[in-house]
C-alpha cells in the first residue's frame, strides 16, 4: 500500500507540474483595465499603491483582525499573564526548570541571537520608513521587529535583553490603530472620502520627501501606523504565550 501511495503521489506531482510549466510557457497576459490604475497611483511603487491607495479599507480590516486575535488570545490565556514582575519572580524559583534556556541552547545560539535580533529590528525600521518608496511597509517591517523580540525571548527567556512591557505594548497597539483610523478623516475633511490619499492639506504638503520624488501623501504615516500595530500585536501574543508556559511549568513544578 505504501508503494502504491508513493507512485500515486509521484504521478500527481508529474501531472500538475507539467500542467503548471505548460501554462507558464504559453501564458497570454491580457492587459484589461490594469493600465488605467497604473497610470494614476501616487506612490512610486505598485505594491504600496495597492495596499494603501486602492485597498486602504482592506488594510484597515486586516489591522482589526490582528486586534481581534490579540483580544482573543488575552481572553483565552488571561490578562493576568501580563504581570511581567510576577513572571520574572516565578522564573527565579527553583521549581521552574523547563524555562531555563541555559541548558537548551548552546553558547553559539546565545552569542548570535542578540546581534541577529538587532539586525532584524534595524531592518524592520528601515522597511517601515521606506515602504512608500520600495515594496514593503508596515506589515513587513512590524513583523520583522516582532521577530527580533521573539528571537530574543526564545534564546534568553524571561532574561531577554529586549523587553517590551505590557503597558507599553497596549499603548503602542492602541496608538497605531487610532493613528491609522484618524488619518482617514483627513480625506473626509478634504473631499468627503474616508482614507483618500492626500498629497497636501490646506495648501501644505503632508510629507516632505527627497528631491525628485513625488509627494506620497499620507502613505508614509499609514506605514508607520500599521508597523506599530503589527509590532505590538505580534509581540503581545508572544508575550502571552511565553507567559502561559512559565506559569504552567511553575504549577507543574509545585
From TrEMBL:
Its main location: membrane. It holds the Pfam family MnhB. It is a multi-pass membrane protein. InterPro entries: CPA3_antiporter_subunitB, MnhB. One of its GO terms (cellular component) is plasma membrane. The keyword Membrane applies. This is Na+ antiporter MnhB subunit-related protein. It comes from Methanococcus vannielii (strain ATCC 35089 / DSM 1224 / JCM 13029 / OCM 148 / SB). The lineage of its organism: Archaea, Methanobacteriati, Methanobacteriota, Methanomada group, Methanococci.
Amino acid at each position: 500500500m505504501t508503494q502504491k501511495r508513493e507512485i500515486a503521489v509521484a504521478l500527481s506531482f508529474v501531472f500538475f507540474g507539467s500542467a503548471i510549466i505548460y501554462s507558464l510557457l504559453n501564458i497570454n497576459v491580457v492587459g484589461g483595465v490594469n493600465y488605467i490604475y497604473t497610470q494614476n497611483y501616487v506612490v512610486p511603487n505598485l505594491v504600496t499603491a495597492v495596499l494603501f491607495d486602492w485597498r486602504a479599507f482592506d488594510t484597515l480590516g486586516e489591522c482589526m483582525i490582528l486586534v481581534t486575535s490579540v483580544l482573543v488570545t488575552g481572553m483565552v490565556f488571561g490578562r493576568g499573564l501580563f504581570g511581567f514582575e510576577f513572571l520574572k519572580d516565578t522564573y527565579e524559583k527553583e521549581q521552574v526548570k523547563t524555562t531555563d534556556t541555559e541548558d537548551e541552547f548552546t553558547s553559539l545560539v546565545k552569542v548570535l541571537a542578540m546581534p541577529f535580533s538587532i539586525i532584524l529590528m534595524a531592518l524592520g525600521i528601515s522597511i517601515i520608513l521606506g515602504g512608500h518608496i520600495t515594496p514593503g511597509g508596515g506589515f513587513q517591517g512590524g513583523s520583522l521587529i516582532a521577530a527580533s523580540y521573539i528571537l530574543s525571548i526564545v534564546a534568553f527567556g524571561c532574561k531577554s535583553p529586549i523587553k517590551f512591557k505590557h503597558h507599553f505594548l497596549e499603548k503602542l497597539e492602541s496608538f497605531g490603530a487610532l493613528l491609522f483610523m484618524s488619518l482617514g478623516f483627513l480625506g473626509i475633511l478634504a473631499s468627503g472620502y474616508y482614507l483618500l490619499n492626500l498629497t497636501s492639506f490646506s495648501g501644505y504638503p503632508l510629507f516632505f520627501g527627497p528631491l525628485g520624488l513625488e509627494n506620497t501623501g499620507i502613505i508614509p504615516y499609514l506605514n508607520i501606523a500599521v508597523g506599530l500595530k503589527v509590532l505590538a500585536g505580534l509581540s503581545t501574543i508572544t508575550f502571552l504565550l511565553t507567559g502561559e508556559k512559565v506559569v504552567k511549568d511553575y504549577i507543574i513544578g509545585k
